[in-house]
Amino acid sequence: MNFKYKILEGIPDVLPAANSYYSDVNHAPKRKKILNPEEKKLALRNALRYFEPKHHAELLPEFCEELETYGRIYMYRLRPDYEMYARPISEYPGKCEQAKGIMLMIQNNLDPRVAQHPHELITYGGNGAVFQNWAQYRLVMKYLAEMTEEQTLVMNSGHPLGLFPSHKDAPRVVVTNGMMIPNYSKQDDWEKFNALGVTQYGQMTAGSYMYIGPQGIVHGTTITVLNALRKIAQKSTSPQGTSVKKGILGEGSLFVTSGLGGMSGAQPKAGNIAGCITVCAEVNPKAVETRHSQGWVDEVVKDLDDLVQKVKDAKTAKKTISFAFLGNVVDVWEKFDEEKVHIDLGSDQTSLHNPWAGGYYPAGLEFEEANEMMSSNPEKFKEKVRESLCRQTEAINRHTKKGTYFFDYGNAFLLEASRAGAKIYKDEEGNFVSGTSAGEDRDFAYPSYVQDIMGPMCFDYGFGPFRWVCASGKEEDLEKTDAIAREVLQKLKEQAPEEIQQQMQDNIKWIEGARANKLVVGSQARILYADAEGRIEIARAFNKAIKKGEIGTIILGRDHHDVSGTDSPYRETSNIYDGSRYTADMAIQNVIGDSFRGATWVSIHNGGGVGWGEVINGGFGMVLQGDRESERRLKSMLHWDVNNGIARRSWARNEGALFSIKRAMEAEPNLKITIANLVDEGLL
């Protein structure tokens, strides 16, 4: 049976043989048992409704065992036997090029080279799912293969509600993930309703089919680290006189962080591109092995004393190198404090949005020991996590007193540390205190990286993570698009105002070195930061090249971590100071606007990055086919997709956003934005 027929088959009439649980695959941790007996029956009924009654007696004990063993029903039996990867778009069955492009992106998200837990349909972040089970995957692929340009597929948290009549200009797919009634967005609500099979955590680009492997976050991390190095170059309190104050940016500087999973795995590669020394701790041996084998980290170290010596040698030689420490980052912070190893930059990118189910591993426990405790004794595990967060915070505080610049990397570290009772605030005298002692209306002692770096330097000016995928699967197409994007950016930079010159130059440098850094994992994809003008002009140039036959179909998208797609008070909108950062109007309006301005598919999610119930985020995908319709859609949608966010940020009185939206109105007469009037503080 060939690949196309297997896609069209959907859920087969004759069930495949029961699938084995492969021990050599990086599996999701076992979820805690949260359902009562009646709820377990409901979960089983919910799972069996995908199958004809004649199969129920055979599948029931199997699904029951999965639920008892793993805390979820994944339907391993339904996992396809063909290889999972993004094939060239021409190899997919279908009546609609746009639908084929979506199929390509779904398979890329589940590619074992890309996905964190591929057999559990989880792309990254420990629980960022594409689908809840393999029956959903099979049905969705079948629907997409049958879809015409007069239909729209509606997706409810991984479940395909069905194909609905629509029209050519409508999105081909509309995706929602985890959109709960607000009072049901606590962590245990996700555990319960996900176990029941009625919702899922789509993260950001996992459940919206737009993940391109760690390359996406490599670029964002590179931009973050470069700008962080610039900040400490301007003002350094290192007693040694850190080398970023003069000479080559990043030379001899030390960046300490943790996590080598789906998103966090990009950190050592970004450190290398930025030109510093990186130490990234990770407790999962398989994650360390994966990143080392992919060339994303230079050297694996398992002994703390050995690590100290290697870092000291690298500092002396001013060497650019990355180390993966197989162990807990808490031990690294404490050891470097004891050995007086100065840390220039510090952060953390464990999946603390998911602290109780594998997102954070506490110090003092072996990896397997922690995995066992989180399912068998979840309350004890929570206690260990809280203790570890307090220890980690204490060590970080000692380093920052000596001049380390620490920032929250949008993973809810500060939030969860505060909930654990850690001394993550400062009192009026500047002493580190817990939330109980800090009083009301308090801010964390450390900034979010968006609050301090990406917000004022990038998002307020409209710069965010624009990405594209070459649907042909050809390396030469990616090389051609790199050249097109570089040429467009260079032309735009010549006319760009001083305020955005540095961001333009950083991205020109990035695209020039992209191939040399071997960033492709999975699909032939690229990412760079661009504003609305840059995104539109690059997309138009791609569309013209497709029309001329120089390249094949291109799929546009972006990370949800962007100017306007996400409302997240502890990350994307953390530099909104008018009191509106806890509102989610922008994300909802963004995805609605994208849907009627030409997006091929749109998505809106609860959760992502900083956690379930903490953020609303939206994304899109757009297939360019080299025609006039693609030209019309890209111009209309990309302009809105960026500028609605700048407009919101300018209303919050953000200086960069006020500059940017006024510039945007000068360029587009039909854009008329309500401008905030500034108040004389003396009057207040």
Automatic annotation (TrEMBL):
Cell compartments where the protein resides: Cytoplasm
Kindly list the cofactors needed: NAD(+)
Q: What is this protein called?
A: Urocanate hydratase
| Residues annotated as domain Urocanase C-terminal | 459-662
Give the CC-aspect GO terms.
cytoplasm
One GO BP annotation of this record: L-histidine catabolic process to glutamate and formamide
The protein's UniProt keywords, in alphabetical order, are: Cytoplasm, Histidine metabolism, Lyase, NAD
- Pinpoint the Urocanase N-terminal domain residues: 84-210
As one GO molecular function, the record gives: urocanate hydratase activity
In what pathway does it function?
Answer: Amino-acid degradation; L-histidine degradation into L-glutamate; N-formimidoyl-L-glutamate from L-histidine: step 2/3
Q: Which Gene3D superfamilies match?
A: Urocanase like domains, Urocanase superfamily
All copies of domain Urocanase Rossmann-like, residue ranges: 213-453
What the protein does comes down to: Catalyzes the conversion of urocanate to 4-imidazolone-5-propionate.
Identify the EC number(s): 4.2.1.49
So what family is this one in? Belongs to the urocanase family.
Name the enzyme group at the top EC level: lyase
Q: Which InterPro entries match?
A: Urocanase, Urocanase-like, Urocanase_C, Urocanase_central_sf, Urocanase_CS, Urocanase_N, Urocanase_Rossmann-like, Urocanase_sf
Quick one: which residues bind NAD(+)? Answer: G125, G126, Q203, E282, Y409, G609
Which reaction does this enzyme catalyse, per its entry? 4-imidazolone-5-propanoate = trans-urocanate + H2O
Q: How is the cofactor bound?
A: Binds 1 NAD(+) per subunit.
Q: Return the PROSITE patterns for the record.
A: UROCANASE
Mostly located where?
cytoplasm
